[in-house]
Amino acid sequence: MMEKLLNTLKIDALVVGGGIAGMQSALDLADQGYQVAMVEKEASIGGKMIALSKVFPTLDCCSCITTPKMSAVAHHENIHLFTYCEVQSVEENTNGFKTTVLQKPRYLDADACTGCRMCEYVCPIDLRNPFDLNMGATRAVRVPFSTAVPQIAVLDMENCILCGKCEKACPVGCIDFSQQPKLFTLQTDTIILATGFETTKRDAKKEYGAGELHNVIDGLMMERLLAPTGPYGRIIRPGDGKEPDSIAYVQCAGSRDKTLGVEYCSRVCCMYAIKQAMLISGSLPLADITIYYMDIRAFGKGYEQFFQNARAMGVEFVRGKVAKITQDDHQNPVVRFESTDNGSKVSERTHDLVVLSTGMLPSYDTKPVYRIPAGDDGFVYVPEPNSAPCVTDREGIFVTGAAAGPMDIVDSIVMAGAAAMESAAYMSEKQDQAEIHEQAEESEMEVAHV
Amino acid sequence: MSESTNPKKKEEKDEEVRIGVYTCYCGGNISDAVDCEHVKKVMTDLPNVVVSRTDMSMCSDAGQALIEKDIKEKGINRVIVGACAPSLHEQTFRGTVARAGLNPYLYHHVGLREQDSWVSHGDYRGATCKALNLMTAGVAKTRLLAPLEPIRLEAEKHALVIGGGVAGLRTALDTARRGIQVTLIEKSPFLGGRMAQLGKVFPTDEDACATLDKLIQKVASHPKVTIFTQAEVTGVSGYVGDYQIKILQQSRGINNDIAEAVLDADMPKVPDAFNYGLTERKVIYKAYPGCYPPTPAVDWAHYNGEPIIVNGQPTIFYNKPKNFDLKVGAIVVATGFKPYEPRAGEYGYKELPEVVTLPQLIRYLELDKTTRTLTWAGRAVNDIALIHCVGSRDTEGVHEPQADGQVNNYCSRVCCTATLHMANELRERFPDTNIYDFYEDIRTYGRGHETYYQKALEGMVRFLRYRGIERPEVVAAPEGDTHPVLVRAKDSLSQGEEMEVAADLVVLAVGMMPTQVDELVQMLKISRGVDRFLAEVHPKLRPVETAVNGVILAGTAQGPMTIQESVAAASAAAVKVAVLLGQGEVQLDPFVAYVDPEKCDGNGACIEVCKYEDAIKMETVTINGKDVKRAVVTPANCAGCGGCVSACPNRAIDIQGWTLDQYDAMVDAIALDLWDLMEVPA
Amino acid sequence: MAENKKHKPKILILATISGGYAGADSVGQLHTDYPTNTYILPVLCPCIFPEEFYLRCFEQGIDAILVMYSGTDSPYKGGPERTAVMINQTYPLMKERGIDTRRLRLAAICTVCTKPFLKEVTQMDTLLKGIGFVRDEMTIPEAVQ
Questions:
Q1: Could you give all domains of chain B from N- to C-terminal order, each with its CATH number?
Q2: ipTM score of complex
Q3: Fold of A201-359
Q4: To which H or E segment does residue A166 belong?
Q5: pTM for this predicted structure
């Protein structure tokens, strides 16, 4: 099917990355009538956003924003979705870009799979669920998560024991243990990079326990705990399953920190911590929530009001940098901090659970494949941010979303529209030039005839 | 309540109504406050309901697939979903049912989230019972839904962009690059907006005017863009794809022959708003040396009509305003912002001459870019105090409201970085100055912004941190003091000590306010948020669109933004214009009046009340061999208000999709007492 | 049934999509609670409703009707004026039937009018707590019986 598609279709734009930014760019191009190919390295589109609980400042459930866009991408007649694929190389030619893409094996026939999950039910291998940041359990063959698009299973060959149970259980016989990776190419006029971000590793900072403290988690883990589809269905400490009465947020845990080589602000952590604090006080009304911070950066539309609401709800904001986190004999994290509200005195406080407000890091180096350099901060370099925020220094290739620096969802969606505009305008102008060129050639021919 | 009233319904008459009811958990947003499973159970027993289901997230692909499957496998021919507000996902589900082969108007959406679960905390049974009534009413309407066809209209491939600042310019350029005709109008005589008033800008330290000029040149030379300066919208009618716009343009007053000479002529002067009143300019002027258009303009508000000697000739200038009409398919509002103007006395503003705003200081430094000594009011400036959050992050009941009773409780987003950018510039240009920065939180959030903060810390800018409710105080220094002004604050960085800084200059980092566009807002029927900036439909689902189809927002009219963010938002606005108008056709919901000729007796009551030209006409038709008069609707001219519906004594006219029968059915369902269906409390 | 405390008088809210309905959505976004005996139906413009519609609502057992229209912000020419006319013409008919005219109220609510929305709802709810169910005061015309 794919070969047929690739042989017969002229694709205009390639969008790399199926997170919120990539999806919006693809939709904004496809709605204008352009043929778009989307390549996503994971087995489902949705990016980081689909794993979140509710989103600031409206407290909409994240699914309500993401899943309809995922669905729209999957069903759009002008969008061709390639999941579980990675871009290998990009060659420039007279028609634009020839991109070689690797289709990783799902070890099943994706066209035949109906997403019925029979394979998942019979699989004997229990694994920690990567979608729940290793908190819940899953199987070696599975549909990645309940709202995954496409609803197609993927087999984790690293953990599979080839017992063959799934093969027997599959009603359409689509399991194929011998599937091999495949390469294919896409010819497009333009490319949009929407490769997103990673978050600070939980073990990045020695002073914060280097990931070894049982009840110190990161922001994304808390998102999963708060999500209705989360691993436990409620907020518990991963260390011992106890419901926490006292929860602390440590801001800038991975941002504005020279010792980690990250000097920039990650832009979203203040707001997600405040949002999580509000959601926690909804489900654990008696819990004390403390946010240790340097500056609260509630800068977006409606954000400051959101911050003030959290304050009014009784969330405690302590101004001061956390120096160290240790744990006591009951595995309760102990936070050592210098409060500037309290005469810069160094104090210690014990909490039941600490959430590190981890920051945003570049996830993908565009240099080797796309020959596009990174800025000092490691994100995709944008030469003229005030004139052309989506234009990279390679003509025809554009960047959007958090690939171009930390960004919240609202800003990513707006920038995704801008990237779609840039690439559409680029294609229009190229088309116009081609027509002018053609007309010139025609008139030359006429002259020749005379 | 027979269905025979709509001619279109007749075909469907014999078809059995089979309804699918879906109640969404909305990831807990609904199910936390409403017993969705109970709603599902009660719905199952209603007449015509074939399936009733719940799902964690109906709008997800899996949720939508449920509906599609039921349509195909269970023969569902009407669908109702109880979920979030219809403004968010009604369209999504219309698309779902259409994909499964059903007419999209056989879908009905009930808002259970914004109007029930989110407003009924702590009353689980009350909220559930309310949901039962709302869903029962929804099912009652769904039962009476008829298939409809959208109205397709040719769209004018032409967009109007209102505002010639960086956002308007960018939207105009991008829209034109996609082959759509653009008319750009600007109220003032020159393009460039607020960006033209800046000097070097973050995060690149490029010259704002140079960057702007490149953009203006591209816009002005684009064959698809027409620019009108000194122009304003005075009237709007029509709808998406076909707006009729009335524009009023003032004369420029100057022709090119005297363009050079007139600038040298002697004439009255007025405070120069471009320099925030720091200097004066002539009543015939250019905003700044490289401005566009380059021809000077007469400031009609201040020109007194007296002759001015130009080239030795006494010359009188006349304003002959022009009115003209435009037909456009879409409208982009890029009306921008104005800096917050502090009250007289706020931090000593207007009372102490040494207190200025940041925009004023930027202009002041631009006026003489070469000087290496900073003076203010004839005095050398050594100590400068910067105060953040002036006119931003105010608290109702704590901070004094503005003249209109409002307080700006929002963060203006750009001022922290702009202030620190300025602090660094001052330290570089005038290395002997001492700078004191009074702040609550430093919000250098953007890419490259934090660098300015680091640089300021390293550059020996002294930071003093106050608490939000204990803002600094600016007072005149006692006579004979070394400095004219004192700034006092409790500094939490020095253990809450009361600090006093003697300053030669106090700079207020003022926030952003929306440009006053009340009349335009009224004409376009768009809305403002509580912060008074123009409101988008939803910050994530439709971030640049207004609730009015075809009216789109760009830049700081919508909220505080940096230049970079304005440019991105402007391009995002252009993409929406391109999507809307690119195909040359728009689709409108067919919610217009229709007449049942069997019930109409030709009395004409409907025509009498109708305010829309040619929307309803009386035509002579032959029924049973007799010539009779019957009302006939022209759908393209009908707005769908329904005034005719309440006027008709025979219930012969109705609005498609919103019929009186449907309302009666919904009212009956709401009136039902459903408490008895609530289970006994645990 | 009426003696059960759970049975509360019902308020029907007819709210314009361009005004009151969006205003109610804004209240939701703020998560501000108001009584659950309130049922909002979206309307394009309430000028669609003739007097009999309102009377019929009361007959069916709706205890109060709040018409939340868009006032001067209405996108419909003449719509707000006609709405007011229809409602004014309904009041004497309500009186004839012994219905307290305070049970029908017209208010202009815009998309961000969260406070006015809550005020209208609370006032009407308070009124109903005092005057009770409509059926207890209505004199049903014989023809209808």
A1: 1-150 (3.40.50), 158-250+321-336+515-585 (3.50.50.60), 256-289+301-315 (no CATH), 342-513 (3.50.50.60)
A2: 0.94
A3: FAD/NAD(P)-binding domain (3.50.50)
A4: helix A165-169
A5: 0.86
